Fold:
Amino acid sequence: DRFARNSFHAAVYKQKLKENGVRIISAMENIPDAPEGRLLEGVIIAMNEIYSEDLSQKVSRGLDESFHKGYYMKKIPPFGYRLENRKLVPDEATAPLAREIFERYHKGQKIVKIVEWLNSLGMTNQLGNKWRPMNISTHLHNRIYMGEYYYGQFAEPMPVPALVSAELFDSVQEKLKASAHRS
Structure:
């Protein structure tokens, strides 16, 4: 129902197709191959462009509203949390483990040892898979664990229940930076 998202792209693509001997025929509208057909096609393209821009604005407004209501914008919550009425709340079963990942790393345990520990417990990550070092690294960098949820274009974080203190989080970040510099 739409050849392109805007009139510029429609014109460029149509010209390229024309140069290659391709004629465009609409299955939805009977557009004559005459001057009035070009006018009708221009109106349809303009209407589609306006529709696309309007839809984009509505989606942005909806995201903004949802974020400011405190809703978590992703489908799968981070390890240690669960969704309750679209908001993040600590998960009683996994929140202590999410916190312990930080504590173990803070005390000097290597990421591969943390992975081994979690997998030995039969614990899976939030996607239901075995833990890997990359999962732990992502976990340790995620500011959500100290109570700050960032999403998309929003500069200010939405507060969520923290699983670790800001001090522990910052200390872990320093250790991660130092470890990265040694690599």
User: Anything to note?
Assistant: The first strand starts at residue 81 and ends at 84. The CA atoms of residues 103 and 109 lie 9 Å apart. The first helix runs from residue 7 to 19. The beta strands are 81-84, 87-90, 148-149, 158-159.
